[in-house]
Design goal:
By secondary structure, the protein is of the alpha/beta class. It has seven helices and eleven strands. Helix 2 links the parallel strand 4 and strand 5. The termini are far apart.
């Protein structure tokens, strides 16, 4: 039987939040932001959770979040790295017996059980999956002087979210190739799979409420979503 591991990323500094408190620990309606993603995965069918955080925050996360809220599926807490891809790589290496991994930004508090289950079903079939939503905006390509040079076809554009789910061994192999070539211009795990595993990524429907909390305005929007 396949094993599914969620890798929840919470190692960022949150510099755009302009706060002395790292954004993953900022209070959102009585709970730290990271609580919501961990709760969703804890109540889902995934087998276990690896939490990736800053080295200096491991004990805090273990005592004040995992133990405090009874997240028994969080079996491992590992230190992240300087960049997102470093943190994912550390999480992948900790998921030694997983067949599939669901990688999720801890700053996305509104991941749903339906998204997680759909991702689990789809990754078994396709090996590489991400949730996403159709873009609502017109997207322009802009030149160095700030002039629009091309308008992209909105009907084929999607905003990528997380969780992003993969065959663990395939993603780990792609990461090793990326690191060997020292390719640092990576912002997303789907790009790594496309570039280093030569694998197309299946897009499945996410949710417009599945926002990534990055700025103070996002905190206010997240509070509104929790009150709905």
């Amino acid at each position: 039987m396949s094993k599914f591991t969620a890798i929840v990323l919470a190692a960022g500094s949150g510099s755009r939040m302009h706060s002395d408190v790292k954004k993953q620990y900022m209070e959102l309606e009585g709970y730290p932001l990271i609580y919501y993603a961990l709760k969703s995965f804890s109540e889902s069918p995934v087998d276990d959770i690896i939490l990736v955080t800053g080295l200096e925050d491991i004990e805090y996360c273990r005592n004040e979040i995992v133990m405090r809220y009874g997240f028994v599926k969080v079996t491992t807490i590992v230190a992240g790295g300087k960049e997102r891809y470093d943190s994912v790589y550390n999480g992948l290496n900790a998921a030694i017996d997983a067949d599939y991994v669901l990688i999720h930004d801890g700053a996305r508090p509104f991941v749903t059980d339906a998204m997680i289950r759909s991702s689990m079903d789809a990754v078994v079939k396709y090996d590489a999956v991400t949730v996403a939503v159709p873009t609502k905006d017109t997207i322009k390509v802009v030149d160095d002087d700030g002039f629009g040079v091309e308008t992209l076809d909105r009907s084929v554009l999607w905003n990528v979210q997380t969780p992003q789910s993969f065959n663990r061994n395939m993603l780990l192999g792609a990461y090793k190739d990326m690191r060997t070539l020292n390719d640092t211009k990576i912002t997303d795990d789907t790009v790594i799979i496309e570039r280093y595993a030569n694998k197309s990524v299946k897009i499945i429907e996410g949710d417009y409420r599945n926002i990534k909390v990055t700025t103070p305005e996002d905190i206010n929007l997240a509070k509104e979503f929790l009150r709905i």
